[in-house]
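Q: Given only this backbone (430 positions), what sequence would you predict?
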């Protein structure tokens, strides 16, 4: 099925052709017709399936069909994303789609100057892509108005919940007076996610292009059992012996990332960093070096699990198993995209066996174990026997998407508003 069959304008089809888009992906085939009819959508789709085009193209076409004069600080369509990288990627894609039509698109997120973003907002925008925290900051300074909002999208909504954005989302929603067409896209679902969708959506069309919490069929999964203190050696060994050219490595802590990059460089392997302590410009440079092949390895914390679009990425390594089983799906979603083959490699220490069981339960498949000679973990059998036979271990639940303590989040929000109000008063006095 082609994009021209969906009654998109010739200008949009021309831009999509130049982007290399030929046929609709399954999520696009299912979502676009309902979105074009103005229905709310609740969609379950893995990363790399074409979600951005699925929700943005109907919005673009509807705005083009109903042009309006831009008013200062006014926004017609708002797309919320959990991370800077994802917000920037969505905005870049939409700019590509709108190359031959007159739409005003911008992205706002932390790590860049508020003043430069304010200038973009002041012009009035057809489509705004934003992270929740930075959007609230601009709303509190009256730099953006959602009074006439027509379209609202939540991308990677499950990740927003994981990152504690639930109170921010509710504060944003409290400022919306219209009833925008709302679309919620997520790779995983939980009871909290279902509760949020009930709050946000009106009689949504539910779309699922794969089993919930599934991983792409193009990804091959393997596990290397290894002691914690041998993981760095094993990573260098695999990269060297298997001649891996491009490897995205996930760790749980910034300190681990910093140390691992140093060690890899000592082994002669060029590596770059991507975590929350790095400035946005530094993270962007690291990603560019990795994409261009100047660095063989990028070591990242969970901040990079969403929004990274690296064409043809062959290998993702879980150096540390994620805290949440659901995050395994998002991490390995960086590989095996757009129908290409990918490899998800996990290093699992004795302490991480329970997490591995939870991941296998979530994705409904057993992951193949590979025991590399010379890296056999010590004293493993007794622990495995205990975990697989005793119900207290076997049936134990992992961490889930816990609701953020709303009162604490609201206190933080009030404090932020107080600081911003003080800043406004100081400006007025000047």
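A: Predicted residues:
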């Amino acid at each position: 099925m082609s994009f021209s069959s969906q009654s998109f304008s010739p200008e949009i089809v021309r831009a999509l052709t130049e982007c290399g888009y030929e046929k609709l992906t399954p999520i696009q085939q299912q979502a676009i017709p309902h979105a074009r009819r103005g229905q709310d959508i609740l969609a379950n789709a893995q990363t790399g399936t074409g979600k951005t085009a699925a929700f943005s193209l109907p919005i673009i076409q509807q705005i083009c069909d109903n042009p309006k004069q831009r008013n200062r600080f006014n926004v017609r369509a708002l797309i919320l994303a959990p991370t800077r990288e994802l917000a920037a990627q969505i905005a870049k894609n939409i700019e590509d789609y709108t190359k031959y039509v007159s739409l005003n698109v911008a992205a706002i997120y932390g790590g860049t100057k508020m003043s430069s973003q304010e200038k973009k907002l002041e012009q009035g925008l057809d489509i705004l892509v934003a992270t929740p925290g930075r959007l609230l900051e601009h709303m509190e300074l009256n730099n953006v108005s959602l009074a006439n909002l027509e379209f609202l999208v939540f991308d990677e909504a499950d990740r927003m919940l994981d990152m504690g954005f639930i109170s921010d989302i509710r504060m944003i929603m409290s400022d919306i007076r219209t009833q925008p067409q709302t679309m919620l896209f997520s790779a995983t679902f939980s009871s909290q996610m279902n509760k949020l969708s009930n709050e946000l959506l009106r009689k949504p069309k539910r779309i699922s292009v794969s089993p919930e919490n599934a991983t792409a069929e193009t990804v091959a999964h393997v596990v290397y059992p290894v002691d914690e203190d041998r993981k760095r050696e094993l990573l260098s060994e695999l990269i060297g012996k298997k001649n891996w050219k491009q490897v995205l490595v996930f760790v749980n802590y910034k300190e681990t990332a910093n140390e691992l990059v140093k060690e890899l460089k000592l082994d002669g392997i060029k590596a770059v960093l991507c975590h929350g302590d790095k400035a946005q410009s530094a993270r962007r440079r690291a990603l560019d070096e990795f994409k261009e092949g100047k660095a063989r390895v990028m070591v990242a914390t969970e901040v990079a699990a969403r929004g990274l679009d690296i064409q043809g990425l062959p290998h993702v390594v879980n150096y540390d198993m994620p805290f949440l089983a659901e995050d395994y799906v998002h991490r390995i979603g960086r590989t095996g995209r757009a129908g290409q083959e990918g490899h998800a490699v996990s290093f699992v220490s004795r302490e991480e066996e329970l997490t591995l069981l939870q991941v296998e339960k979530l994705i409904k498949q057993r992951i193949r174990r590979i025991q590399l000679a010379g890296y056999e973990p010590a004293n493993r059998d007794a622990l495995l026997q205990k975990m697989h036979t005793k119900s207290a271990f076997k049936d134990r639940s992992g961490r889930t998407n816990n609701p953020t303590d709303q009162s604490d989040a609201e206190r933080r929000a009030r404090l932020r508003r107080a600081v911003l109000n003080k800043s406004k008063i100081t400006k007025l006095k000047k």
